[in-house]
Amino acid sequence: MPTDRALGRRGKAMQISPQEFKPQARAALKDATLQQALGRAKVGFTEKRRKGVEHFDDFEALRERGRRIRDHALNHMDEYLERLESMVQAAGGQVHWARDDAEARDIILGLCQQRQARRVTKSKSMITEEIALNPALERAGMDVVETDLGEYIIQLAKEPPSHIIGPAIHKTRQQISELFDTYHHQGALKAKLREIPELVTEAREVLRDKFLSADVGITGANFLVAETGSIVLVTNEGNADLTHTLPGMHISVAGIDKVVPTLEDATTLLRLLGRSATGQEMSCYTTFVTGPRRTDDPDGPEEFHLVLLDNGRSRMLSGPYRDMLRCIRCAACMNHCPVYGAIGGHAYGWVYPGPMGSVLTPLFVGLENARDLPHACTLNGRCATVCPVKIPLPDLLRQLRSDQFRQDIVDRRTRLGLRVWGYLARQPRLYSLATRVGSRLLRILGGRRGRLSRLPLAGGWTSGRDFPAPQGARFRDQWKKRQQQRRQA
Amino acid sequence: MAAAELLERAGYRVEVPEGQTCCGQPAWNSGDEEQARELARQAIHQLREFDHVVVPSGSCAATMICHYPTLLAGDREWQDAAYDLARRTRELTAFLAEASVEPTETPARFPGKVTYHDSCSGLRQLTIHDQPRQLLQRVEGLTLQEMEDTEVCCGFGGTFCIKYPEISEHMVSDKVERIQESGARAVLGGDLGCLMNIAGRMQRLGVPVKAYHVAEVLAGHADGPGIGEKG
Ligand code: SF4
Question: N or C: which end of chain A has fewer CB within 10 A?
């Protein structure tokens, strides 16, 4: 479980946390700029995936293969991790095991200090968000530079990512123009709206100097290949390659769940990943990194370190949420989630948003610290149909609800309501009486208009919708009457 | 009532067992497994003697077909009965499409453009998609105009819409926009929860589109007020 420091890691500008889901969601719905950004993002991602999958012969079969590969890897995780470790060592790298986020931070900080690092470049990695790495390095006096364009933008904005593959998806072009004006031009451009290529070129120029002067490069890893001891890095900007080849030391941080047996397995998963994430057959840059620079290599770091993080994953492996560990972080589930589409990623309050986040966050930070997340879902199931490794996300959310119910982490109104309703539903006579009285009452309340714009105990519904008052007699009564008439006829 | 008539017309004898209450879906989706189990047993018991159990709502059908067996897995006494019920249970449009009896009486009429909202449970758990569309082809005068995002959730989600009304409202507003863009004069569906949600939002906004259960249109009963409207 992450330490308090990791939970309280958010930038000063924003105070967000999973406990505050409701108010955060409400604020997001009212934020016109955010809504504008979300509207565009939603259509973009779903369209791209649809096309990417359409052009593939049998995507369903590929999904099934992906699921099997991941399940097999999880079933034999200990073996494959051992093999990975020995292969990394054989290639001249070092492996470090971290039980939790604090241990991982200490290991990485220690390595950077050993190298007397002043500047650290990073390529986008959700796991370094999970362990709240940047603030720890900054506190130690290092200059930490995010090199993925989206990450760079939110680093300037002092915000956490709102999406696992498009961290700045919630930002509009206007907002980015303003940020660049402030940080690159000291406000000289007066927040002028600029074109995207221009903004990209400018960021590249700023980042180039940083790449060249970095002492340590930190990346995540999309997959870990046991048979060769390689880590797989996927980007569309090539920034991961500049991050790991230019400095003297490369540190890769990965969850222990990322291990797969063979290169072939990794390529199968890469085909799923690209199409599910952005509809691409392959991302623009896919790199297999095996150990540090060899004598005949033209470039590469002198040292290679792989930090393997558990942080609750081995606990997940032995429980009912094991399926969640198949996740390859493609983001298809959030791209197709109508709740995410309405509120964006920050409302979820921690590192991982959307459906996968609603499962992972309670498991990482504790059910009682993320009460809303398992419920903030209509169980519509669209996420599970696009997940490339067939994770039954709605079932896992429902399972979390059961765990909450059993552990009594449910608000009193819900529990009471369920009790009363459940009691009635088990007493057919009473249920019938209650619905008869209820429908009569609603009919009276509905009045001449036949619908209700305020409803006792369901204010939520009627704040934005009418509630239909029952029309005529209840079905059951109508039915009885009809049967009687028939018998008489 | 429309559903019962459709079944009778297809040649079945329809009964509505006394003592039938609720399939238990609200408990199951709220994490109250114990209560859900009890209601599942109750329903299985009440429905034990019927050849077919036809449910005019996708989500209730999905609960009985997909979730009862999961809920009662490991319960020696009830597990098999749960599977047996699942085998006999069908969602209404799936049943009618499978039965494929030619309508003996005059076919229903519903002139004009309609659009169809695919309710999530029916669509993804029971693969109800083509069946209602197939059945609607038999309705005279009706043209089906598909809307964008027809398979995207309307934001109902059972207790979800009470717990997170603002998010739910945002979602149903999107849905209503898509319905309006389609130019249909009515939206049809196979799940009462979704239909009430959509109809409620349309009425609040004053959108002049009617909402009907697909069975009402198929049975020729959709000449009156739509869901949530006063006759
Ligand atoms: S849960 Fe599935 S869809 Fe979501 S990010 Fe993980 S792999 Fe992708």
Answer: C
